[in-house]
Design brief:
globular; ATP-dep_AMP-bd_enzyme; ANL_N_sf; 2,3-dihydroxybenzoate--[aryl-carrier protein] ligase
Amino acid sequence: MTSLTPLDFTPWPAEYEQHYRKQGYWQDRTLFDCLSATVDQSPDAIALVCQDQQYTYQQMRQNIVRLAQGFVSLGLNAGDNVVLQMANEAEFYFCFFALTMQRIKPVLALPAHRHMELSYFCQHTEAKAYIFSDQITGFDAQKQALQLLETCPSVKLAITSGTAAHPEIQALDALYLDASDHPACDRPASNQHTDSVQGSPVTDVAFYQLSGGTTGTPKLIPRTHNDYVYSIIGSIEICRFGPETKYLCVLPAAHNFPLSSPGSLGVFFSGGCVILGQDPSPKAAFGLIERHKVTVSALVPPLALLWMQYAPSACEDISSLKLVQVGGAKFSQSAAQQLPETLNCQLQQIFGMAEGLVNYTRLDDPIDVIVSTQGRPISPDDEVLVVNEEGEPVPAGQEGQLLTRGPYTIRGYYRAAEHNRRAFNHEGFYSTGDLVKLTQDGNIIVTGRDKDQINRGGEKIAAEEVENVLLQHPDVHDAALIAVQDAFLGERSCAIIVLNQTHLDQAKTIKPIVFKRFLHGKGLAEYKIPDQIQFMDVLPKTPVGKINKKRLREQFSAS
């Protein structure tokens, strides 16, 4: 097994680990243990519905165990890293649990990621395999797999959930080995521990999520069994998930919000049913709500607005829907006020991050709290500080930068020592980059971002990453990416380009599409392509010579 170095994973200090166990937050259970406990209790209940297929909890566990054996048969071992990029399909959950059960650590890539991001994930983690879906729209994943096999020395295996079209690629279906005699198939969860993790501490890294980031490449977030299980169990209690919960997942299944807040994992751990949707549009989603009597779903603000626009004229019966969770980006107060009446259900606002901290409005909160705040943390031991630029706490109601630490918030990114020195202070507090206000009763109101990042409808874009690629174009002298307020997306991205001196007089003839095609050709994810492109003769600078993005935002927001 590959050993972890301090650069790979920053553990919680021993006294904090001891405290979190004493308080019962960390239960030393793996993700598979939690799923298996549900299987033992309700083996014949329907766990998962994907298109015309459905799986009971017992069938789900059997598929996971068989697939885990198949991964091992290919030479994947405990401690190996793999990149997992799946659409909303049952195989995502089977792979996720099978890999973490064997202590193989998946990087949870999103369907929107393309060559630039995927090759970075593989190289940065020395991934041994790329496991992918053929169901990602507008993306030749098998071609991408061949490129990764050729260009990333560590990648030895490419595995598709579809039909393998090349001899170098293997089909996931062939890996479901007969494991009927494996003890994890039928043994009660209390006896699973040594089978699933072979005696290793559950503070080991289970998998990696991805930060929105503010620098040139996404940062990898190491999540452990203990911290992630606690965040899910705490979320289940707050959101009152249980065996009657029918959860429609239309956001990307690998995203932290629909995975764990409480998300699909919260449903599995509480005995409910996950219905996977491949199309988040209201017509498609409302059809699934009617067909499966869905009770809850999670949306980002732009999608919530689409559902609200469609609902008054909808012919589908969505009366089973009791709760809509909205998160990923700031939801306007006016829209929040309208949602309960428009969709005839309760609203819950969620403000969280893949690095850890998750805040919820409670189901029994007064309506003014639900529509005007983003809630409060899961845990009594979630430490939240709102500070000014000097790092000093500010009074309740005053805007400041959000810092946090707690039993499920990481202490460092994977192999990012320099960035960790900026993102975490000497006391282990994580600087989230969010500007917030804290109310007297502990609820958080998000007011903006301090980091150089665009939140485009819940998708986080690091400005520096896009700027660095634009600067590779021979006609670009300088470039800046800024956020511009947008009524639908919350924020849209705007690239301001300064052309090389020889092309200044041609600014009116060079079309923005040229640069968009260039970014596409470089393998940048679709959501990172600027929504608009503007040209300037020179970018404004601050007194210390940095690009004055505040002035740019003011100028282009006004226009």
